TrEMBL record:
SUPFAM superfamilies per record: FMN-binding split barrel
InterPro entries, A to Z: F420H2_bilvrd_red/Heme_oxyg (IPR052019), Pyridox_Oxase_N (IPR011576), Split_barrel_FMN-bd (IPR012349)
Alphabetized Pfam families for the sequence: PNPOx_N
Coiled coil: none
PANTHER family in the cross-refs: HEME OXYGENASE HI_0854-RELATED
Protein name (Swiss-Prot/TrEMBL): Pyridoxamine 5'-phosphate oxidase N-terminal domain-containing protein
Keywords of the record: Oxidoreductase
Amino acid sequence: MHTTETTRRPTAERKRDTLKRLATERDIWVSTAHPEHGPHQVPLWFRWDGRAVWMCTGATSVTARNAREEPRVRLALPDTHDVVLLQGEAECFPDQDVPADAAEAYTARFRWDPRTEEGSFLYLRVTPTAVRAWRGEPELRGRLLMRDGAWLA
């Protein structure tokens, strides 16, 4: 989505637009860090369940290793003209322990079931504690839409 709007949207409209993007977009950038190895960032497919972001990655990937060691993560939708940033803590679920409804919803969305693949996968669930969204400079002030897990609008 590319926009060149320069007017400030009301907070409720930014929240509505953010929730729509979370429900419809496919890719999200995941930023993790490890105390000894530093930061790491990758794009992953994701599914928004209305409260949390669900992703899946190889169980031995850098993202999986980092999330296990340091669960604080940042997520970003891939549009720099319509910024959406989330932060929270990743809960890790080995593919054999993921809640069935979450795995089935992920499979339905992407027509791919990591549980049937060779090798192990790790599902990550991130319930945001903070969400920021803005389009351009007019929306920088007031870009915080969620604080401490509660929507502000």
